[in-house]
Amino acid sequence: MLASLLVLAALGFLTLELFFVLSLIGLLVIVEFTAPFNVTPRWRRRLRWLIAFGLLVFGLIVVRRVLSILPSGVF
Predict the structure, then answer these.
(1) Residues 6 or more apart from 36 whose CB is under 8 A from it?
(2) Residue-wise burial string across 50-65, b where 16 or more C-beta atoms lie within 10 A, e elsewhere
(3) Which residues, in sequence order, are CB contacts of 44 under 8 Å at separation 6+?
(4) pLDDT tens, the chain, 75 aa long
(5) 26: Cβ contacts below 8 Å, ≥ 6 apart
(6) CA angle 69, 62, 21 (to 5 degrees)
(7) Helical H runs in the chain?
(8) Phi-psi label, residue 12: left if phi above 0, alpha if psi -120 to 50, beta otherwise
(9) What is the pTM of this model?
């Protein structure tokens, strides 16, 4: 997350939306790479709620971006 924050700031693209999307992608990658094979610990089951909330916020960001791109008479 810190690396994405620094890169976005260095490139001048630092917005809360981009930082959130990159952080969510990083979380999903880390969760997949550290997934156990046989036993799922109890704390990992709670990650589903965090991931679901993140995907919901991501969906809201996408809808907001699409609505800002569309002409005002379309929707």
Answers:
(1) 44
(2) eeeebeeeeeebeeee
(3) 35, 36
(4) 999 999 999 999 999 999 999 999 999 999 999 988 888 888 888 899 999 999 999 999 999 999 999 988 776
(5) 1, 4
(6) 125
(7) 2-11, 16-33, 42-45, 47-69
(8) left
(9) 0.85
